[in-house]
What does this fold into?
Amino acid sequence: MEVLTGKYRKRSEAGQIEVNTCNLKLNKRMGLWYRPDTCDLKMLKDGSGDYPTINCKDRIVFDCGSNVGGFLLKACEEEAKEVYAFEPEDFNFDILKVNAEILKSRYETKIHLIQKAIVPDDTETLQFNVTGSRNSACAGSLMRINGSVPITVECINFWKKLDEVKPDLIKMDIEGAEYMFIDRDFPEYVKEVVMELHGFKKEQNVLMHQYIERIKNDPNFEIVSLKFVSVF
It folds into this structure.
């Protein structure tokens, strides 16, 4: 049997950036691969299990922050028509590609993988900050994170791609960068948005609560589920 390997970045005790390699493991329940030295398995479980109120059947889906494919699995299991999976971090994207090939062999969902960060304009590249601790080496954000490992990633204009594809479902879990998109209304063809809001900093905490209050009082929105608000 072929041994699959994956890479991840971390900071050494001396503060140096290291690229580590590990053998991948197969999760038998999901049938997807993960790096045991990172939080991949948690991300797979969260992505496939944290969105019980939505159904992807026959829908065109934007999976913003696809990581290694947890939500992609859910979308395929629920017979989504198409999924556009955005993941900018190169080592995550390597695992996502492996898992996407498995899902393509099982399901009829059309899968489009895009190795770019979503941004609200025509910015071509940005610094992406990969969490540098061993157990969360697969997480990252356009936000600057203490102790993170900076890498440069390519970007794609979210609003232009949105209007090109016209998805009716958007899942957005992009670790604090979602606040770049909340000042503009989503087009009418977008029927449902599931968004994780982050309160990593005081100003984000304020934005988070302001946004929730805004959509609660907007007749054009119907909040189907507001699971929790975590403030870090």
